[in-house]
Amino acid sequence: MPDVKLLTNTSTSAFLRVRTNTTFKQDWREQSSNLAQQDKYAATAGQQLRISSIDRNAFRYGGDHWKVTFVQPLQPNQGQAKSTWYVYAPDVIYESPFSQSNTETVPNHINIIQYLRQQIQGNTSIKPAGEVSLLSPSSIFLLCFLCTSAVRFKKFCKSQSPTGRV
Q1: Is pTM beyond 0.70 here?
Q2: Distance between CA 131 and CA 151 in Å, rounded?
Q3: CA atoms of 123 and 9, how far apart (whole Å)
């Protein structure tokens, strides 16, 4: 498998660092074992791959995948090299020169899935950036807004229903 060379100054480029051996896929819905060789790329731990774009909204891709377009297309074992792949988020670290973390906040390379897993398992080594009171003015305003919106929506639905029932 060829090494991916970094072509330009990485201080201004975002990249993915592969944490553990993993498979990048052309279809996030399928297990990698079910995909054809041309539809999967074997990434190795420690690889750093420059990216041109990334969609980290994992909810669009099964809750745990990102859609990533790499600067240099990645060559699967068979078929043509491809630029866009789906990656399993816990197996990679997204690093950008524009998102610097400090020790008082959740580090930028900890994705939300990992953070929530650690919190559920009782690992308190990661702390939220600050404490938020449930009785803060903005929380109370938001609660009032949601309640009144629900009532208005129900009234609207009743007015649109031929039977007057929701």
Answers
A1: no
A2: 31
A3: 37
